[in-house]
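Appendix B. Worked example

We walk through a single record from start to finish. Start with the input: the chain for Recombination protein RecR, Floricoccus penangensis, length 198.
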Amino acid sequence: MYYPEPIAKLIESYSKLPGIGQKTATRLAFYTIGMEDEDVNLFAKNLLSAKRDLKFCSICGNLTDEDPCNICTDESRDRSTIFVVEDSKDVLAIEKIREYNGLYHVLQGTISPMNGVSPDDINVKSLITRLMDSQVEEVIIATNATSEGEATAIYLSRLIKPSGIKVTRLARGLAVGSDIEYADEVTLLKAVENRKEI
Ligand SMILES: [Zn+2]
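Next comes the structure step. The output line below is what the pipeline stores for this chain.
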């Protein structure tokens, strides 16, 4: 079916989003065209601003509009614990259970030799730098329960343990292959409480 170029381009943009097929992209594109000018302008502005104004925190690697992020600068947080996660969405998931008051470190990925991702390609170096700070007593590794997440946890554990810092891993309440960000709050809370030293 032929569409005028502007709408074809809009469909193409929507179809690049995760979980959006051609059919949904077409529906969204036509919906957008029917929106008020004001709403479309705001939508475009928000897209640009999210991309332009967000950066990675230079300390923890979390997505933020201020560097360092508001977790790293929060003096009321416990500086003896660092919770290591794969991405910023996991930080939100853990913050939601309101049980953890320490710091975070966002890896922005996992080690995956199969896909050519080495420790140097993810945010590991800055974690090691942070651990030189003697305040840190425990590193909780909360990478996802996937083979890459496991491999990353083992790699980090071997790297950190010689320093004498306690390394723990979330309990196996989380199903194998599951993502932290999709776990329900009770499961997540249990996984944090029952974390095991590795
Ligand atoms: Zn930060």
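Two observations about the output. The pocket of zinc ion is lined by residues 57, 59-60, 62, 68-69, 71-72 (CB under 6 Å). The first strand starts at residue 55 and ends at 56.
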